[in-house]
TrEMBL record:
Listed name of the protein: Calsyntenin-1
Membrane topology: Single-pass type I membrane protein
Signal peptide region: 1-25
Pfam families according to UniProt: CLSTN_C
BP GO annotations: homophilic cell adhesion via plasma membrane adhesion molecules; positive regulation of synapse assembly; positive regulation of synaptic transmission
Species for this entry: Takifugu flavidus (sansaifugu)
Region described as Disordered: spans on this chain: 917-982
Acidic residues compositional bias, start-end: 926-963
Keyword terms, alphabetized: Calcium, Cell adhesion, Cell membrane, Cell projection, Endoplasmic reticulum, Glycoprotein, Golgi apparatus, Membrane, Postsynaptic cell membrane, Repeat, Signal, Synapse, Transmembrane, Transmembrane helix
Compositionally biased intervals (Polar residues): 965-982
Highest taxon of source: Eukaryota
Length: 982
């Protein structure tokens, strides 16, 4: 309240009031404000209000002050509080007075609080009053009180797992208390919201549980065979029931109970022919379950006893193999593949296939005789007998492999090779010219190989009086040698037999050998039959086989191989058997041992290997410190599958139809049969096509077609080419097939010939065979009755495994009344030769009749045909004249006459031989037409019908027999002669 008056009126009272004010001023701001010494506050996260306990109130005992200033009197309430002050660095709070008179105030946050940054705040606070006068001078401050503020958390964060994935491995058949622990964390600051209260497996139906601490264990025993790995999804919850933001994946692998074994082995291994060496165990290792081992020994066996003669070998003839292995000449093959030149093995059961070596089966009732003159063995000279044999358990009787005995009467065995009670025995009787004293006559070898039902290679080097036996390349000494007197002199011829011994029942057995009763009439003179399989039986006179040749004959084309790494070569020992079908690996360092096993490979060097399965077996022995086998490693079995090779197609092509003058056939050189022969071998491959190229070429009509066929030429050897006569056999009195023998010898080939043709045998390149076939000549010294000759050529590889097409050649003989002109015409006829270019189709002769008709019309003959046509016109005119002059003839006679004229016309148009020939030569022409008709019936020349013949067949209701046609033509020619007399 303010009072105003003039200064004159108030001057009396001024002094009194001044005294009173001084007294009151001394009383008004006498005391300091008072607050509590400690405050505790709570603030919620993301809020600014602080709840204090106790509340913030400042008290002041001073009375209200009234004072005047320049005629103004101000009345102040007693103990007013003007403010609060907070002390501390970076305190995020402020204090505000709500009521000055009561001293009530609050503390609030400057910004929203974050518990995760700071959970508690501590600072000091002071209250101060308003002081004296309007300007607040002489204000009083309270003491400093301590304030503790806690930031309350809210559940704003979810649990997060520490790892992205958890992995563990357990052993099958065992229950675990704890397999692994998963752990999640929460970013909230409070214990309640940052604590993980629960874990849970989300994946249903799994044999695992998880507890509140994150430990996972299995609820049942695990089985490796049932499940090798379990994948679980696990989540977590905090105490505020917030779920983890992302669940975690847990992988638990089940490990089988540790059993020593080979790991990483593939049971089936495919081998592509021609790809060289193939690793068998690239990822294999030996699991020993941490046993302290001292040595490891493994045997790897490649079982190939079902392939040919024990493994994959070239299927050339045994004679060719001897040549390839470097054996000198003089080898005679006694069990050749049946052919026209070697037919004594026809009828013996074979292996019924060409993929592997050809073998012959002897069942105890069959034997064969070797033709006379095939073997001329002088026992005084060294000679070699070699044979492949597979023989089962031995019988009590002798089983003869090879026997040379008397052909009649005496029944003496001059020499023989036989099996008796698992013993291989060679009987070798001396010649009668020797002195009458004992000499070695029988050599006995006791061999397990003779009765184990497996293929083995036997070589006997005979050099009287010693004999050396090699079985599978290993030399064996005889355990028994018996002696005997030489044979008595006689003029009886001998008989060489295979599979039994020849014996004349009319004579006596001077060698006191047991004689079996004949089982059938066809085998009445055979005894001591062999039961088993034989192949490659050879006799070589004059020279012994050396060890190098023997090893070459026995060596397989397939086997095991290993390339030892340098770092383990000294730590591991590797040994092979002679055929390389098995090997042993021995060492004490398991890491080095594994590396060696990973470098073992399969190799087949054949160009066309035998397809099929080769079984593999690994046997392992592991020893520990006590020297005993402490770890039992089971055997491992698998197989190598050799895929079917791409088979070659051998194609023969060249000139298949030509004509030569009779003088050339009768000349000293003869006629070359295959002057432009080509031998080409191709293989057909299926390759994947390029989809882009298909689209570019417009070949996308069928989207399912993914492969195309292409052919490419390859080079390989041939071992046989056979030229045979088609039709009548060769007549040795006036015709022959000839080949320069020196050319054969230069190439190491052999030729056999007969009245059926000739056969060239031996392994050599296609180029060399082609050159030799170019040199084959046909001669004929009696060509008057010959108009054509046909031959067929067939070549083969690997003893008949791959056979070419039948290449047929027809040669025609050109006869002429004037030999000089005929020779000149023959020299001028390039169109006599009908070349057939090489193509990948059947190259056998086609359209031979057309070719013949188109090629045997010389220019001189053309003039004669013109003359004949003139005669024909003349005779037609004459016939018309006669018809008009003879009115008494009936219409039927006229029609018959026209038919006769047409028949004569038809025959004139189809004459294909030289018209200069006399009628006496017509008979040979008719024979040639008969041969052509026979070929047409065989389906080889069905399309080779001339247009004239086709028209004639359409006009006639029935074809006349050839003899009637010939007679008709004869009458026409005679009638023609009669017309010339007019």
């Amino acid at each position: 309240m303010r009072f105003r008056g003039n200064t004159q009126c108030a001057s009396a009272v001024g002094l009194l009031l001044g005294l009173l004010c001084a007294v009151e001023a001394a009383k008004v701001n006498k005391h300091k404000p008072w607050i509590e010494t400690t405050y505790h506050g709570i603030i919620t996260e993301n809020d600014d209000k602080v709840l204090l306990d106790p509340p913030l109130i400042a008290l002041d005992k001073d009375a209200p002050l009234r004072y005047a200033e320049s005629f103004e009197v101000t009345l102040t309430e007693e103990g007013e509080i003007c403010g609060f002050r907070i002390h501390g660095q970076n305190v995020p709070f402020e204090a505000v007075v709500l009521d000055k008179s009561t001293g009530e105030g609050v503390i609030r946050a400057k910004d929203k609080m974050d518990c995760e940054l700071q959970k508690e705040h501590t600072f000091t606070i002071q209250a101060y009053d308003c002081g004296e006068g309007p300007d607040g001078a002489n204000m009083k401050k309270s003491h400093k009180a301590t304030v503790h503020i806690q930031v309350n958390d809210i559940n704003e964060y979810s649990p997060v797992f520490k790892e992205k994935t958890y992995k563990a491995t357990v052993l099958e058949g065992k229950k675990y208390d704890s397999i692994l622990k998963v752990e999640a964390v929460d970013a909230d600051c409070s214990f309640q919201f940052s604590q993980i209260c629960n874990y849970e497996i989300v994946t249903p139906d799994v044999p695992f549980t998880v507890d509140k601490d994150g430990f996972i264990k299995n609820t049942e025993k695990l089985n490796y065979g049932k499940e090798r790995m379990y994948k679980l999804t696990v989540t977590a919850y905090d105490c505020g029931k917030n779920r983890a933001s992302e669940d975690v994946l847990v992988k638990i692998s089940v490990k089988p109970t540790c059993k020593p074994s080979w790991q990483g082995f593939s049971k089936r291994i495919e081998y592509e022919p021609g790809t060289g060496s193939l690793g068998l165990f690239p990822s294999m290792h030996l699991e020993t379950c941490d046993e302290p081992i001292t040595s490891i020994r493994a045997s790897i066996e490649l079982e190939t006893n079902h392939i040919g003669k024990g493994c994959d070998r070239d299927t050339y003839s045994e004679k060719s193999l001897h040549t390839l292995c470097g054996a000198s000449s003089g080898t005679v093959e006694l069990l050749p593949a049946p052919s026209s030149s070697a037919n004594w093995t026809v009828g013996l059961p074979t292996d019924n296939g060409h993929d592997s070596d050809q073998v012959f089966e002897f069942n105890g009732t069959q034997a064969i005789k070797v033709p006379e003159g095939m073997v001329n063995t002088n026992l005084k000279e060294p000679f070699t007998i070699s044979v492949w044999m597979r023989h089962g358990p031995g019988a009590h009787e002798k089983e003869t492999i090879l026997c040379n005995s008397d052909k009649r009467e005496m029944n003496r065995h001059h020499y023989s090779l036989y099996v008796h009670n698992c013993r291989l025995i060679l009987l070798l009787r001396q010649d009668p010219s020797e002195a009458e004293n004992y000499k070695p006559a029988e050599f006995h070898w006791k061999l397990d190989q003779a009765c184990d039902k497996e293929w083995h290679h036997y070589v006997l080097n005979v050099e009287v009086p010693s004999v050396a036996l090699f079985v599978d390349g290993t030399m064996f000494e005889p355990f028994l040698v018996t002696e005997d007197y030489p044979l008595h002199a006689s003029k009886i011829e001998t008989q060489l037999t295979i599979g039994a011994c020849w014996q004349d029942n009319s004579g006596h057995d001077n060698d006191t050998e047991s004689v079996s009763e004949p089982t059938s009439g066809g085998n009445a003179r055979m005894v001591q039959f062999f039961r088993g399989n034989l192949a490659g039986l050879m006799i070589r006179s004059g020279k012994l086989e050396n060890k190098k040749v023997i090893d070459c004959l026995y060596t397989c084309k397939e086997g095991l191989d290993v390339q030892l790494p340098e770092e383990v070569a000294a730590a591991v020992k590797v040994e092979f058997n002679p055929s390389q079908s098995s090997l042993t690996v021995e060492g004490d360092d398991i890491d080095a041992f594994d590396k060696v096993m990973q470098h073992i490979s399969y190799l087949n060097s054949r160009q066309f290997p035998t397809p099929g399965i080769r079984h593999l077996r690994i046997s392992t022995t592991v020893k520990c410190f006590n020297g005993e086998s402490c770890v039992a490693v089971p055997d491992v079995e698998g197989y190598v599958m050799v895929l079917q090779p791409e088979e070659p197609k051998i194609s023969l092509s060249g000139i298949d139809h030509f004509a030569r003058s009779a003088a050339e056939f009768e000349s000293q050189e003869g006629v070359t049969l295959f002057p432009e022969l080509r031998i080409v071998s191709t293989i057909t491959r299926e390759v994947e096509t390029d989809p882009e190229s298909e689209v570019a070429e417009g070949a996308d009509d069928d989207p399912t077609v993914q492969e195309t066929v292409v052919s490419e030429e390859i080079m390989h050897n041939l071992d046989t080419c056979e030229v045979t006569v088609v039709g009548d056999e060769l007549d040795g009195e006036h015709e022959s097939l000839e080949l320069d023998m020196s050319q054969l010898q230069q190439r190491g080939l052999v030729m056999g010939s007969s009245n059926l043709g000739l056969v060239i045998t031996g392994v050599n390149s296609m180029a060399n065979y082609e050159q030799l076939l170019h040199l084959i000549r046909y001669k004929n010294w009696h060509t008057e009755a010959l108009f054509d000759r046909k031959f067929k050529l067939v070549c083969s590889e690997l003893n008949g495994r791959y056979v070419s097409n039948d290449f047929k050649v027809e040669v025609n003989v050109i006869h002429t009344a004037n030999p000089v002109e005929h020779a000149n015409n023959a020299m001028m006829q390039p169109n006599f030769i009908n070349p057939v270019h090489h193509a990948s189709v059947d190259l056998s002769g086609h359209n031979l009749v057309n070719a013949h008709q188109a090629s045997v019309v010389p220019s001189a003959a053309t003039i004669v045909i013109v003359v004949c046509v003139s005669f024909l016109v003349f005779m037609i005119i004459l016939g018309v004249f006669r018809i008009r002059a003879a009115h008494q003839r009936t219409m039927r006679d006229q029609e018959s006459g026209k038919e006769n004229e047409m028949d004569w016309d038809d025959s004139a148009l189809t004459i294909t031989v030289n018209p200069m020939e006399t009628y006496e030569d017509q008979h040979s022409s008719e024979e040639e037409e008969e041969e052509e008709e026979e070929e047409s019936e065989d389906g080889e020349e069905e399309d080779d019908i001339t247009s004239a013949e086709s028209e004639s067949s359409e006009d006639e209701e029935g074809a006349e027999p050839e003899d009637q046609q010939g007679a008709s033509r004869q009458q026409q020619l005679e009638w023609d002669d009669s017309t010339l007399t007019y």
